[in-house]
Amino acid sequence: MTASVFFGCTFIAFGPAIALFLFTIARDPLRVIFLIAGAFFWLCSLLLSSLVWFITVQISNKESSSQQKGLLIFGVVLSVLLQETCRFGYYKLLKKANEGLLMLSAEETMPISIRQLAYVSGLGFGFMSGAFSMVNILADSVGPGTIGIHGDSQHYFLSSAFMTMAIILLHMFWGVVFFDSCEKQHWWSLAVVVISHLLVSCLTFQNPQYVGSLVPTYIIVFLVGLWAFFCSGGSLRNLKLCLTCKDKDFLLANHRPR
Amino acid sequence: MTGRGPGTIIGFPHKRKLVTSIKLFLFFCLSDVSCNSVAQKIYVELNNTVPCVRLLNATHQIGCQSSISGDTGVIHVLESEADLEWPLSKGPNPPYMVLLESSLFTKSIMMKMKNASSRVAGVVVVPKTSPPEFSPHTTCPNENTGVYTETYDHNLAHCNTTVWNPRGNGLSYEEFDFPVFSLKEDNETEVIKQCYFDHNRVVNGSGLQYPLCAMQLFSHMHAVTDTATCMRRSSMDFSTSPVMVCDPLGGYNVCAFIRPYNSTAFGHKENESVVIAAARLDSKAFFLEDSTGAEGSVSGFVTLLAAAQALCEATQEAPRTRNILFAFFHGEVFDYIGSSRMVYDMKNNMFVIDLDNVHSILEIGQVAVRSGTNLFLHSDPVSRRNNTVHDEVRGSEMLLFVAHFSQPLPPSSFQRFLRARAIPGIVLADHQTDFNNRYYESFYDNAAHLNLTYPSNLSPEEQLEFVTDTAKVTQMLYGFLVRSNNSWFQAVMAPELKDILQPNPPQYYVGVAKSSHQANALTYLVQYLLANLTGTATNLTQSQCKKPDELPNESTYLYSYLWVQGMVPPNSTQRESFCVRTAVRLVKAVSPAFDLGDYVSKEYSTWTKSQWKFIKARIFLVASRDLEMLTLGVGVAVLFTSLLVTYFVSTKADVLFSSVREPNNAAY
Prior knowledge:
- Chain A: Belongs to the APH-1 family.
- Chain A is an all-alpha fold.
- Chain A contains nine helices and no strands.
- By secondary structure, chain B is of the alpha/beta class.
- Chain B is built from 18 helices and 24 strands.
- In chain B, the strands form four sheets. An eight-stranded mixed sheet of chain B has the order 1-24-10-5-6-7-9-2. Chain B has an eight-stranded mixed sheet with strand order 17-16-18-15-13-14-12-22. A five-stranded mixed sheet of chain B has the order 8-4-3-23-11, covered by helices on one side.
- The longest helix of chain B is centred in the C-terminal third of the chain and has 27 residues, at 625-651.
- Mean pLDDT of chain B is 85; it is low at 1-34 and 660-668.
- At the A-B interface, helix 1, helix 2, helix 3, helix 4 and helix 5 of A face helix 1, helix 2, strand 10, strand 24 and helix 17 of B.
């Protein structure tokens, strides 16, 4: 539509991701490297799924509409599965790398914990996924026109931006939960992650009824966020302590030398 | 991965629509068309547009200009002149893009919009029915470059005696700083009107509801001010390939002698006396690419072509002492480019004859719109004060009506010859005083203006053969005014040029002078037609036709040899091509001002056309400013909130994410 819509949608979609990057990742070069590697792994999964999609579309019957719809659903499901597979592959790679890093470094403790790696890799997945979802749309939002001349809904740009923000946050939470369940060998929680990813992707088939796809997605974001919070060592007690500003006492108490 | 694969971006409420759009999108993606489904959902590109472009001369710039990133405006379909208040003052969403029908495309409406150009983003004209009269040209065409200047005769200058084009409103010579486009009446216009009726109509006097239907026009012109400025800017680039900002107008004149001379020997020819029979080739309109010129130019040169054929046949049998030069001048509308060039060449010994060889001049002007069979003969009163000139002219006043003795010549190429020397001459026209042509130099001067209609059930070939008495003339009129791609024109053209024949009439606008030896379609048509009508068919083969000098009886000094396609015989598909020997030549017609480097010349034409990068038009919906600001506000709020929360979380991370260890000795 114009520059104001462009900047508005950019901030909505990438605001949390930028804030997270600035405050938690930008200072530590090791985290930056792992973030970029995570983004690369997401790109690999996209490459594989788009190859499969391209081949299947070429050999399919382009006239048959039901076949094309089925192909689309198949494409979505395949892509979700490939992403989670790449996430698992990245986890395996990071475990191996951590051992190697430990051997090389001078200190005794690991420079970066697996929990931090989970968060960073999830955010890397989220960045790249958000970029691919949103950049094309942002480029067209700069022009003077808005969607609607063929009868579509006007709120396309806004809802795409909110969806992208949800996806980025979700990828981050899923990363944390995924790595944690791999560490603890809780395979059922792994399955829940994959199922929730599939659910969110399939919710987008509701578009253009944006309310029908955005509201459930944000509910899922909240739930998975809570789960990730508990997985990464948070608890209600800690939260209450922080919010009522009694955290200093707690820290002093906990770090009392024994 | 979200379900936002290729299809879900399009997402329609009904499954069938969703899937159709998937099909469409996939079709476009996989067929190598630029694949941007989001842009396709926003914009509808308009392809059949004709823009108004910028022309410059020694003192002015005329035409239209858009800003460099296009001009956007809310569409408003104008219903009457009173409705103009809405875009100019009352409408709440300026700027407006005004859509006019041809009956409202008048000078008063355009000038009102020009004066309020902050509220008008552009104008789009949809040509429909012809108005009763319309001429965007000036009332006194070519008044400064004809022969009637203050020094020649004060009373006749500036159309003091006769105003030739009284209906002229001068719209073509105005300067607009918004773009003006013309659309053909077809599906695209329907799409625009549908979009307007769906979104932009005022309901019950209340304000309009966003989103509104808008249009964006791109026609940014590079040249400004006048020819001297743009030529100076063009040559300022010191690289090997200079960047031109504007191009001089020009083309080629088509010339043919009945008895040809050696084309390499320029200058005066002893004891040679030549009568020049002249006609004008080009014409123009407000939208230059839409130039038709039925009465303005076609009537004249088609008559001359028919006369050339008849005279050539007659002089074969009985050769005369005096030679005849058939000259078809191009670029005459723009201050006599072609004829001024020929006079300049003659004066400077750059043409095969010079002004001393010219005995007299006969010009055929506008001859088609006649009441009865009246044809008038115009002559120049000032040169007739000379007795020899007067006697010559008197001799020709036989069967025709004569215009008043003291009336000056209408705008004609003959005036340029008179500017150089007092030569006897006449101009034939269908008007006694002012023009009979109600659509002089406008888009409506077309086949319908000449009542050139055919019964609707005829095929193109049948229309070509739909003859009255003078077969060749009606066939020529058909080819030049209705459809140039017909069997006769195909037969007379060269094989490599057959693509210039289209299902439409050719363009009559002179165009820019190309540096390569390429003329425009009209020039080639007239050249090959004249060759067919006045030349002789030979038995040469194609390779001999390219190099005829090796043969004993042929000479490229006197003749030019053209290989033409020929007719298709009834029972075969191969054309019988042959070589035509003809005296027709193309002579360069670019204003001498550009050779002399005098870009402020008052003597010669200095018209140039600006260059541009691209010209396009598109329609789309625009959202209200409030929604845009809301989006920006929400975005900034989200960003700040997330910055704050992240800062809070990252500083308290030790506490928030510590693993729960119950201290054995409770803290107090």
